[in-house]
## 1
Amino acid sequence: MLIAARTVAAKASCPECGLPSARVHSRYRRTVWDLATCGRPVKVELEVRRFFCGEPSCDRKIFTEQVDGLTQRHARRSTDLRALLTSIAIALAGRAGARMACLIGAPISRSTLLRMVRALPDPEVGQITVLGVDDFAKKRGNSYGTVLVEWTPIVPSICWTAEPPRT
Ligand SMILES: [Zn+2]
């Protein structure tokens, strides 16, 4: 499904300094993939404008307008589609996630799914009470890694006695 659209807002705000601008520099057409409809991929051909920034002290002299909820800078997929694909990538990872995405009309490579997971911000780390450390060799003698795990004690449902096991 192809949707042709263009922006009509009179002004756009500079992402660097926040100053609104109405001075149009140029226009160009960009392609954004959106959530599938009836299992069919949706391609939005969007005409956007570049604006001059009027703030003399701003480093960005020219900026491109973004459409809230649809576009992000340099993104070829809509905000909603990226959120969906990121959720799939977290749940299923690369190969299985790519198969699932293809079934729902959003074909994507397994490598791109994994890049989306890697691009996520690290979760907030609170107070760590017990830290587990383990080393492993990716290639013995050449490359090693370290795993840091916050250890959370699990209260066992069965209490074992201290007696040694019977033989
Ligand atoms: Zn600016």
## 2
Amino acid sequence: MAKCRVCDREAWVKIPWANTWFCREHFIEYFERKVWRTFSKYVSRNHEKILFTVSGGKDSLALLYSLAPRLVREGYSVSVLFIDLGIRGYSEHARGIVKEHVESLGLELIVFDLKKEYGFTIDDLAFAVYNHLFNRPVCSLCGVIKRYIYNLVAYKRDYDLIVTGHNLNDTYGFIMSALTTGQVSELIKFKPYISGGEGFIAKAKPLFFNYEYENRLYTIAKDVKVILHPCPHAPREEHGLVSSYKKQLRILEKNHPGIGLMFVKNILRNVIEPLSKVVQEKRERKLVKCSICGMPASTDPCSFCRIKIKIDKIKTKSYTS
Ligand SMILES: [Zn+2]
Ligand SMILES: [Zn+2]
């Protein structure tokens, strides 16, 4: 019988890359300490008002439970943002789950309803994508929209830090995909912390060094109900580059436990951090103000407004014809 490394009781879980076993209680302790270590090592001490973005999935809920109570104890003001993307048979369910958890933690919940605020849903967007009206996949467009809303809500309500639940598997997929397509300057986005300025709110990814496996285990250990089925639009992305690399990582980890963690740690230190010093300086000079929404952007109109203009046009056409 395998035993917990800390207390010698019967083990509940194995951490393959550390070749370590934990009982349930000490796994929770290990997880929370790890998340806190990432947060305190990378995130600036100058923040006060923190906005958690929570989708109802395992990652964002693992992050919320493992970090938010600690931040509240440390004196930070913490709220949660949920975006209702209007995905049929999915968003409503997610909204209910998130509401339940946020209430049980005694935090403030901000719900941003995409349809109410902007008149379209991700289902509308998906319909347009399947009809070849956009030349980007739904998940990539949805990502642009979510990032825009995170920043907008944080900016308008004076939050100074946005935290998201990106896990190590996602980051591995994004980094490998950026390398494969030669978009090396994109690598600077993949850091545990990006400082803010000029209308951009600072961002932290405290699960940067956490495998999705760990996050899922934490929600099981803590009995946190999460949405288990994937977004209905996700299967269409299965053959995308990022997904392929995430699959590859799962295979690699079987024979080389910890390889993904080692890769992400090393590329962050040896490539991404030195590179971001060079690229960021160049980028700052190129910022413009979007003439439609007034938010800072690298293009005018900003990428969100360009999506919105296109979807508005498509909707007007389909209603009138
Ligand atoms: Zn133990
Ligand atoms: Zn705009």
## 3
Amino acid sequence: MKRIKAMNKIKKLPIEVYEKIKAGEVIEDPSSVIRELIDNSIDAKAKNIHVEIEEGGIGKILLSDDGEGMGKEDLEISYQQHTTSKIEKFEDIFALQTNGFRGEALSSIARVSQLKIVSCTDESGGANYIVIEGGKLLKSGIEARPKGTSIEVSSLFYNVPVRRNFLSPVKEIKKIKEEILVKALCHPEVSFYLKINKNPVLSLAAADWEDRMTEVFPDQKDNFISFARKSPDITVKGVITEPHVSWNTSSHLYFFINNRAVRPRFLYGVVNSVFSSLIPKGRYPAGAIYLYISPSHIDPNVHPSKKEIKILIEDQLFRFVYHALKEVFHPSEKKQEDLSQIKKFPETSETKIEKKQEKEEELTLDFQGADLPEEQSNSIDYKYLGTVFQTYLMAEIDDNLLFIDFHAAHERKRYEALKSRADKMETQGLLSPRILNFSRLEIEKVSEQRDIFKEIGFSFYLFGENSIVVESVPAFYQVKDWENDFKDLIHTLNSKSVEPENLKDELLKREACRGSYMSGETVPPNEAHALIKEVLEERFPLTCPHGRPFIYSMSKKQLAGNFLRKS
Ligand SMILES: Nc1ncnc2c1ncn2[C@@H]1O[C@H](COP(=O)(O)OP(=O)(O)O)[C@@H](O)[C@H]1O
Ligand SMILES: [Mg+2]
């Protein structure tokens, strides 16, 4: 008897329960309502989108657009399940040009709120409206409204109290602002307007994407660097902040693929690879990267909330974006003559040094993209004041006192020089080949990466189970230094703290560090001058190869403040 009862557990869900669960997949909170409504407005070719919210969107969301609108018949089925004007058959999603295609958003919103839609398709001024509650049509009729659509969503989740109780207006407002910001970056050609509890909080005029970016992040206006690259299949463009400003979160980085906001891991990987030697570990630049590829390379049908898409050519995109960024942020790796185009010392009177102090960020001096006009060089007027704490060079320039961590600056200088010659690493044969012992696992790793070792200048052969014989090493080594580096490289490879393709870079960083002036050493004045000049001319990024900043400045005004002087 018991057994029979136990088998009888599966029941068909009442349709209302099932529908509420399903609606929850698309509509999780007020910001997802806004995401879906904005998507619909943009699909309807709206140029102006107004959003008003009350009680963090839980009480009320009102969105109106000036898009194509819906006729009476379309309006009356728009809130029903799986009704869409955007695709007709499954294959259409692989040629998709719209944000929506499932026909699920309005029906999901309709089931968990009180909804009013007013829409007009022409300039007649006469619009149709419908009022729906819990998915059921309550009323319909005619009212006045210019071309476009208004949607009012009230009492969200009134019939799903568990979910409603979970929402807090303060948190929802934050998410809504972020959602609108993402949409605004995605569609700079559209103007956005937001009112919270009747107060206007955001007004973004239609712009091009670069202007939109600075409209959204006015503080970073001077720090953004643009980049672009085009091939017949892929286009990438974007702006990213210079490496001297960085954040301990990646949430200021936005990625768009075919105007869809996405957060694919591989794109974070690209940014990490490009910036690993420019900013400290665990910190990120801010910016927006826009990618355009054929819709046939994308499967958007991965998740109802549209946060994910499947990209069918990830590797190709990785390389493409990587090179686009590399050209701008590591120009010295291209060709030596590119150095001549790197921006020289910036504006003279209003230097970036002062801007830095306003923001209390690290010094905002850095090289910029190679597309900047060449300026006069060698005319920088500074006074070298000596070294302090056996660690910092001090110089006076304009109204600023400059401190340069000489080890870190020298390390960067040497690293850049080594990198520019690293295409073909010169090797030197050892007079007597050297036998080195390793663990079995390490030997396996070394043999797997033999080609990479060869490329960076180490050639060797296996000797028994635990040894290798090294025959030649990179030419820059003095007699014995190579042995420690070689062993370290193998250990780091084995412990996976470095990827095989980064071995060369790791080696260059070590060599750069080894050959640099160490803190505590005396820097001869001529060397100090050379270093200061190159730093001021922005010959290289202003962080060490591990991402530490090496320059700090204090303005005369700042100093005076400590003495309660006005200047
Ligand atoms: N703001 C709008 N302007 C014009 N038509 C709209 C608007 N919002 C929704 N629609 C229409 O309602 C349909 C259903 O919307 P939705 O449920 O979001 O599904 P989807 O966007 O996936 O098609 C859309 O296909 C579109 O035809
Ligand atoms: Mg939609």
## 4
Amino acid sequence: MENNIRSLRSYLMQRLLISLYLLWIISTVVGYFATINYANQPYDLVLLQRANEVAAELKLGTGHEQLDVVPALPDGSDLGMPDRVLYTVTDSEGRKLAGNGNTLRPLSYRRERKGPLFSNGEREGQKTRMVSLTFPSRNGVLQLHVSETTQQRQALIRGILANIVIPELLLTLIALAVVWYGLKEGLRPLEELRHEVANRRRDDLSQLDGGKAPAEVRPLIDAVNNLLERLKQVMAAQQRFVADAAHQLRTPFAGLKTQSELALRTDAPERKQHALEHIHTSTQHGIRLVNQLLALARNEPGGQSTDSFTVLDLNQLAQECTVEWVQMALEKNIDLGYEGTSAAQSVQGDPNSLIEMLNNLIDNAVRYTPVDGHITVGVKAAAQGTELSVEDNGPGIEPQHRERVFERFYRILGTGQSGSGLGLSIVAEVAKRHGAKLKLDVGRDGIGTRISILFPVRPSSIIN
Ligand SMILES: Nc1ncnc2c1ncn2[C@@H]1O[C@H](COP(=O)(O)OP(=O)(O)OP(=O)(O)O)[C@@H](O)[C@H]1O
Ligand SMILES: [Mg+2]
């Protein structure tokens, strides 16, 4: 894994190294040609002057040439003047007429050419620079080629280049060192932060101190801190939930223990029977609570995904669920009705979760609505989807409780009913998992409770 992680420092250094290296090469090449150009200019002038002196000595261009005169030219033996100078006089065809060496005619040298021509060449392994001049003569033209070795020029070029290249190289190295050090120092707070996180206790969710970190990573640290804060809240909620669940489970178990002890101690059959009935009720409470806890776990975010979702007919599902409750409603002489649609109402969802949701809603309605009440379960097509509602004309839920009844284990005291406060939180989780909008209102004519769930039309809007 370590190999895949790219170090910011080495990445930047690599980039910088390549670009500085390229820059150095380019400036060296450009500097080299510029230097040659500037170094040649004064030497070329001297060479031309010398060629003119030779021409004067040989009287070229006067019509009275004296080609047998041998002008005195440096032969390279003088330490102050290490370059050797040679000259040749040729006719227009390039045939040598006089001279102290064989200086080849430059290829591009044309007949009747006006003005001097400078050219580069090589003789006996040494670089040479030559100037060629044309003079009129009786038999046409004469050409004078004066060539010199380039040791002095090259020494000058080397000197200038050394003064460009070496400081540039030093500058490059200094720049690299400064950047390397800057990066090391700049990233140190991050390294410290990494160290701090790595050495944390498993349960330490306190905020990271990004005070010294570079501004660029502040948003990341803030985001991590935000996440830590939320994680802390979630963990606290989980802890509270476990404590509440254990507390709730203790009641039916305690009842079981007391009643079974009572049954064991007594010989009277009717007392045994009575105790057994209590045991039965406690067991039912226990089972219901455990089932509710399981339902909550199933519908929690991060629990089951939408894999179990199918396209189902909400109208039919709600109707079937309602029928199951008719008997219970009758026992309290409650009129439990169903208002559906004639057409099927397709909804994407998990049928088991939706049944759990409906059961909890109808259970509440039947439980909290007094004798002779009315309950209506309904499914209808709405503008933004399909609406499922359970409405009763019971005592209603006071506005101050409306937000909180969807919290886990939240109950309104004084209803005289037993329960653990999980029903509506299951409803809320199921709605959330289906991307549905949950609403708690008063019932018809401002009496009772109406809870509605609006399922979205498009399955794509389902939230996990
Ligand atoms: N239809 C309703 N009419 C009046 N009050 C209601 C209705 N439904 C819920 N409530 C109130 O909201 C509270 C929370 O309901 P919820 O279903 O979450 O828990 P519960 O019914 O008390 O227990 P459980 O459903 O876990 O057995 C209830 O205690 C009750 O006071
Ligand atoms: Mg309930």
